[in-house]
Amino acid sequence: MKFFVDTAEIKDIKELHETGLLDGVTTNPSLIAKSGRDFKEVIKEICGIIPGPVSAEVASLEYDGMVAEGETLAKIADNVVIKLPLTLNGLKATKYFSGKNIKTNVTLCFAANQALLAAKVGATYISPFIGRLDDINIEGVELIENIRQIYDNYNFETEILAASIRSPNHVTQVALAGADVATIPPAVIRKLADHPLTNAGIEGFLKDWKATGQSIL
Ligand code: E4P
């Protein structure tokens, strides 16, 4: 499973990129607003750090506006992925960009039928929002399982990008369900490496190592 980081914070992106764990980045208008930076500038900077796909979301709800905004965003860098909402206009714009070999990420997916439509118009990625479904007492991971089965039934190439990930458990669940990618907030990525038994083990080994009085170098 590929790991994207779900943020527009340069410091986090640089730090996590250095670990070798990152395959890409997703942003959304809320994350851009949180960064307090100019949208196009921050996308350009992220694309210069991460060679993998970087999702940048259109703001228009009209087809013509989505196409114009997406074309502008696509010119920022070769690795920009145009993020479009799962509406009929968004799907129509996805079809337009897929015809031009411009990568797309269809976002705000909450139902398997929506994911089926995104695949039919040639979306590069579909983003089912796990955490927001869990928030309203619907099992988010079941959506990933259902989309996986539908895509496998018809050999759709659209990649399942599990989004709205809130915890390390979500990461395990979507990996088990066969998501191709998970986009994960920086804090959750950091938590994935953490285990109390690992920490306790390191402490014990270090104590015993010091007692040997040896040095490796
Ligand atoms: C996905 O691309 C979105 O940016 C993101 O995962 C939304 O997560 P949230 O529900 O925590 O806002």
UniProtKB/TrEMBL annotation:
It comes from the Bacteria. It is found in: Cytoplasm. Keywords: Cytoplasm, Pentose shunt, Schiff base, Transferase. Its EC number is 2.2.1.2. The active site is at K83. It catalyses: D-sedoheptulose 7-phosphate + D-glyceraldehyde 3-phosphate = D-erythrose 4-phosphate + beta-D-fructose 6-phosphate. It is an enzyme of class 2 (transferase). InterPro entries: Aldolase_TIM, TAL/FSA, Transaldolase_3B, Transaldolase_3B/F6P_aldolase, Transaldolase_AS, TSA/FSA_arc/bac. PROSITE patterns: TRANSALDOLASE_1, TRANSALDOLASE_2. Pathway: Carbohydrate degradation; pentose phosphate pathway; D-glyceraldehyde 3-phosphate and beta-D-fructose 6-phosphate from D-ribose 5-phosphate and D-xylulose 5-phosphate (non-oxidative stage): step 2/3. Belongs to the transaldolase family. Type 3B subfamily. HAMAP family: Transaldolase_3b. This is Probable transaldolase. The lineage of its organism: Bacteria, Pseudomonadati, Pseudomonadota, Alphaproteobacteria, Hyphomicrobiales. The gene is fsa.
